[in-house]
Batch of 2 targets.
Target 1
Amino acid sequence: MNEPRPAPIDSDPVAGSELAALVASVQAGSVHGAADLLNLTQSAVTKRLQRLETRLGVQLLVRSARGVLLTPAGTLVYPQAHAALTALARIPAAVADHLAAATLELDLAASHTIGDALLSGWLLSFGRDRPQVRPTIEIVNSPGVLQALRVGRVSIGFVEGDDAIDDMTSLPVATDEILVTIAPSHRWSARTSIAPSELLSEPYIARESGSGTRAVAESALAGTGVALTPSLQVDSAEALKRALSAGGFTLLSTLVTEQETRARTLLRLPVRGLAITRTLWACHPAGVTLNGAAADFWTWLSNHACLPTRS
């Protein structure tokens, strides 16, 4: 069965300049008056009117010594011509409104640690000076942040792992430490530190394989000859914390366990002889100029993002 063919696009459409000649002639009451309104010669206006009538195949105006009058066909065309010109005149304002709104949009992606522990506070502080900015935050693991940046879905991203960011303009916004984290009921609860080899004796509860926290911690431990195999993998720090009540340990950022540590619902232990530290980064694609709210937020981060005190 043959599909219906779409109607062809007119290769010689009515031009806005021709419609303007018609509307100006009617409003001024004469071709001479239209020429003054349009800042054209009378001959130029006449030619545009003639082209319009030729395109439509009808006479639109009756010209006389007293001016111009619309023909019956002209009375049909004139309102639509006027509406079309009005719509055209609104286009620059519509585009300007769109661009103004776009300058207030702030599309961000953040790794879980930064998104959960730092970014909301930064945005609240930034918003005191720019309350009209509308931030949206996508919280994913570090590879997901970089992917969102590279495809242009977000303007600024925040990462925490060992992923290469050579194609990014980057800004260090915080430092962080990763510690062994356990429930108070764990048999290690009275300990002050744990040897790397001891970690092999307990179930290891880990974040998903793309997690920056997991990548940094396991890489550091591998340098001591300890290769951890997760007994359980979960996709958020909150899920890790809940899972600890059943036993085992995890490796978590000090940034995301501050409240639980103060309340002693979780305990943190350093790995003996090994400081697992990292830098957290804000980044955007190199060679891309930030505009609007994104540029303002980047400047704010440069001036105000403070390094947290290590526990």
Target 2
Amino acid sequence: MPFRTLAPWLWERFGAEVHRVALDAGSSCPNRDGTKGRGGCTYCDVEGSGTGALRAGLELARQLESGLARVARRGPGTRVIAYFQSYSNTYVERARLEQVLSVVEPHLAARGGPVVALSISTRPDTLNDGALEVLSRWNERLPTWVELGLEVADDRLLSQINRLHTVADFEDCVARAKGAGLTTIGHAILGLPEDGREGARRTAQVLARCGVDGVKVHHLMVLRRTQLAAAWRAGEVQVLEPETYVDWLADFVERLDPRQVLHRITGDSPQADLLAPLWKVHKNRVREMLAAELRRRGTGQGSLAADQSRLGGPGAAGPDQSRR
């Protein structure tokens, strides 16, 4: 592949097939509870881009046990990333964060269990020093990742979509997380209103410059129960066709650092929640289309990266691995 994908990196790191188990710890966000704003990000639904399992009454320990049972059916030796997905998981008191993470304890690989890594999704403005200390201690026991939403590298648009943090907040948070020894993963959305193709390029450049170890990117999706849905119904929001998305995605990938791992290049949602776009293209097909487009251009991940000097630390690998 002319870009660096997650599955081979996981095999290199853990020597086994690895799957995520998504967990809902019942967290919130400062742009929902009134600390910064109300209503959340315009594209984010009431479950905080997560499962909604806790709201539905499924306690965290049971969520994990159920997820582990599903993964175990894939075969013996399959490993697990415990993925705290919904909302901003460090937007809690330190004691609550420690309590939440403790549910993983009985299932750690060091105890004979399948969990080989933690992944904590949060906002760049909610990762304080206390949370960093907690996560750093966990990182001494098993790899701990922090997933941070940038989404778009434009402060005006970040305000417009009600994220209510800045690009500088994101870059500062990445630096502090990396300084604490944590693996960092940046999130991006292509096709946000008024962002366009140049915005996709700019966002990739910021992700490369700040040196996140991994990247998750997907196209803009309009979900029910979001602020964006009303604007879309009014004809104020356009969504991308697969061909356009792949074209912009190729621009994006060319500007990443070649050592950054692409954890995701498309998004998905339950069909009942998705209003647009209603693609008939499977995510594996998007991956094939991206590879074909980069080969047509004669480029690959990092071909147009401006600066490859800042990536390092946990999870980084040499540029000779960038085409796996």
